[in-house]
Amino acid sequence: MSKPVVSIVMGSDSDLPVMQQAADFLTSFEIDFELDIVSAHRTPEKMMDFAKKAHKRGIKVIIAGAGGAAHLPGMIASVTPLPVIGVPVKSSSNTTEGWDSVLSILQMPGGVPVATVAVNGAKNAGILAAQILGASDRKIRSKVIDYKAALKKEVEEKSMKVKIG
Ligand code: RP5
User: Fold this and answer.
1) 33-37 sheet: strands from edge to edge
2) How confident is the model at residue 97 (pLDDT cuts 50, 70, 90)?
3) CB 15: neighbour CB atoms within 10 A?
4) Nearest-CA neighbor of 73 among 31, 101, 34, 110?
5) Could you identify the atom of ligand 1 that is nearest to the CA of residue 66?
6) What are the beta bridge partners of residue 89?
7) Helix (H, G, I), strand (E, B) or coil at 41
8) What burial letters (b/e) apply to 134-149, b meaning 16+ CB within 10 Å?
9) pLDDT value at position 115?
């Protein structure tokens, strides 16, 4: 990965099975990314350092995933000028079905947006990151257009198989 333009960060290695889906999507689009564990609660200094400097290193979009009291995406958003996509992770070590993460990431105060995807929706975070980059990059935009066409074709084929009448 020569020059990452997307940064994927997560609160714990236990979030990796979910967050890997964002990485896999970006890989399929040949978008260079970096990936690391950055914890709002366990490594707050690292989080702030990362959030303050990411744009200076050429990062254009940040995908941040966390579970439980998920402060990572919002705290990163508080200091970065970059768009932040938040992934609420249904943590294996909490039992509230992901609602804690959803509300922690979604209910941001005015002025500090986090684009929140569904619980464990890391693939959508990867797609949204590609769409953000694609707004100013014709090659990526073209891949997004193809991707959406493939989704349409897939549904049309399923419709042909199941449709009655
Ligand atoms: C959050 O706490 C992490 O993002 C993870 O989803 C959750 C549990 O972390 P571990 O105890 O598995 O490290 O900060």
Assistant:
1) 33-37, 6-10, 61-67, 84-89, 115-116
2) confident
3) 27
4) 101
5) 4
6) 67
7) coil
8) beebeebeebbeebee
9) 98
- Average pLDDT of the residues of the chain: 96
Is 161's pLDDT higher than 80?
yes
Among 93, 97, 100, name the best residue to mutate to test ligand 1's pocket (greatest count of ligand atoms within 8 A of Cβ).
93
Helix, strand, coil % in the chain, rounded to nearest 5: 50, 15, 35
> Considering the entire predicted model, what is its pTM?
0.96
Whether 86 contacts 70, CB under 8 Å: yes
Q: Is 12 in the pocket of ligand 1 (CB under 6 A)?
A: yes
Q: Is 120 within 8 Å of 107 (Cβ atoms)?
A: no
CA angle 119, 121, 126 (to 5 degrees): 150
